[in-house]
Amino acid sequence: MVNRGKLVWYAQIIFSLLLLIILIYKIDYKESLHLIMFMPFEFFIMAFILNSFGGLFVSAYQYQQTLVDHSRCKVSSFVKVNFIIRYYLLVIPAAVAIGLRWLHFKKIGVSGSQAIYIMLVNKLVQLLVLTLVLISILLSPSFFYEEGLGNMIYIFSVASFAGVLLIFLMIFSDKGRDKIKNIGSGSKSKYIKKIHIKLQNILIVAEKFERKKFIVVVSLGVLSHFLIIVSQYLICLSLNVSLNIIEIAFARSFVALLMLMPISIGGIGVREVGFVGVLTLFGVDSEAGLALALVLLIFQLINGGIGFFFTIYDGQAYKLEL
């Protein structure tokens, strides 16, 4: 019998390779490599530290603070899980990696409901950051509004803000939680009943969570994304790419959305095409856009290598089976 998981995995690898081959054929990749080789080393190190610190360490502290009883798990445990997930994202489909993150959360002492709650809050913060970026783009006088692009961004920003606000109200208001509690309550389907039970468990966690503390959690999430954006801004400076930080934030947020689609392994190929395409709209050469994406790929490979070390060092790492 055909293993569908492996077929999807192979298809994603092939798709990533095809995207890279097309880029290499269309773009002078040697010029991109030349730009990377002559980057100031201190800029590279600073950008890497900010990227890793923002994406791994600050988010790990955010995960810990999201717990109702955050004293149960050390920040270092969440940092370790973040590195391991970076490794998984390089070798398996993103959906499987997310499932393994949930398993690793449980492994360090986080309950299943709390693990789901942490990931839910993380996605809410991502939506919030995207909303802030889109609103900043609208307020930026340097941004272009040709061919209806301004209207499109306006619609996306309003829809994103409305979606985030609705989710916040549904989870953290008494009336909202009452409505969620009724979802699937009268269904006879066993699958709907399982979903209903999981929703109840998540809501129990949400009810125990201090609302004042949520501001700290959201602030940490925003800080994490901001550090990553500053990291990419430093890379652009070292590549002589003249973009302001708002434009970098827009490009980063747009590419991050593209990378959520389950069509590649670790976003490889999608990230490179995304940055080349978006930065071209701002008048940046394709070679410089590819160079930025390749530097971020190097960061991902380094973090993934550290995660691989942890999976070897941690004798109880989960076997990767698709």
Task: Give the N-terminus to C-terminus distance in angstroms.
Answer: 14 Å
The number of strands is 0
Strand-residue proportion: under 5%
Q: Specify the biggest β-sheet.
A: none
What is the residue-mean pLDDT, rounded to a whole number? Answer: 76
| N-to-C series of helices and strands | HHHHHHHHHHHHH
**Structural class per helix/strand content?**
mainly alpha
Overall 3D shape = globular
The domain count comes to 1
**Count of separate DSSP helical elements:** 13
Uncertain residue ranges: 316-322
Approximate helicity band: over 70%
**Radius of gyration of CA atoms, rounded to a whole number:** 21 Å
Structure description:
With 322 residues, this protein is mainly alpha-helical. The protein has one domain (4-313). Helices cover 78% and strands 0% of the residues. It contains 13 helices and no strands. Residues 316-322 have low confidence and may be disordered.
